[in-house]
Input
Amino acid sequence: MPGPLRITPEMAEFHAQVSADFLEPLWLAAPEVMLREPKSRPIPYLWPRTLIEKHLQRAGEIIHFHNGGDRRVLMLINPGMRDLQPYGWGATTQTLSVCVQLLLPGEEAPPHRHTQTAIRYIIRGRGAYSAVEGERVYMAEGDYVITPRGLWHEHAHEGSEPMMWMDCLDTPLIFYLHATFFEPSPTPKQPITRPPSVNKYLGGMVRPLSDHTPSLAPLPVYPFAGVEAALRGLSEHYPPDPVEGYVVEYINPSNGQSANEKIGAWMQKLPPGFHGQAHRHVNSAVYQIKSGQGYTVIDGVRFDWQKGDFLVVPSWTYHEHVNTSTTEDAYLFSTNDIPIYEKLELQREERWTENGGRQTVTGVWTPAGVQPVQTVGHS
Ligand SMILES: [Fe+2]
Ligand SMILES: [Fe+2]
Output
């Protein structure tokens, strides 16, 4: 086994010479490039609901579609990705771009299509629809919606209250892969040519014969009522998973795989007082707190959350979820890049086994920075 590298004066001179010619010695670079384990560039971070709503409301007052833009969207840029140009590549994690969008009553966001795939999770309101490749998909609070890559889509709002939703796209991944294509529509509105696909899936665990050959996202919208019933069935009759509580994944009814082939989505229910065991995995995830209050400990730092907050869990960071209420469930919607890591056969998970699966809390996150915890204790 080789010992520590000792750099002689002639080696140092050589290193400088090759570097000037855009050559780098692997014997120097290996420890930093060929890491022993992943080191996430995105950091754990939380955007409070109040902050998001304040800025989105102001955007509603001053940003209008007739003024050039085609979506009123704010991207949640991870501080660890901010120095990437342009615009931190829109990265909330290394693969996922999580955004918040506001559509006001009567507004129409014009059609476009792109190579990024998209999912939406409706935070507030009802009455807006996305027209996707000739089909109108109506959206309401709690719904999960898919707009697959490459399809024309536009949004319009027929309701009476502002609508707000979370978008999640694979923008940073597609940008890094140099595979970004974006196309505005030559026409201001698509003709509606297809009936609602949701009518093909009214029977629950049966599928139309036409789905025997799987297709990309055949079901565009997943209402919350069905998801809530699924979680109720689990929680009333089964013990919680020690790490996750109760979780359902949104799946493609034609093949049982992730509903969106690149972006995973979960709805998670933490029963009152639930304290999950910590684990870490190669994939990243972004949580939107649907309801409840609690905290997540990420690598020893406690992130307190409540309804409407957004939380990033980066790759290979230990994390555990806690519901601090003794009476109310907490519901967490989350998106992840598990489908990508599984396709690349890179997914890996490890459990924290010390102290019954609970990390030692060393700090509490605040927007101004992490405040150290004075007394040594356990979360
Ligand atoms: Fe889009
Ligand atoms: Fe996790």
In short: The mean pLDDT is 95. The domain at 45-202 is CATH 2.60.120.10 (Jelly Rolls).
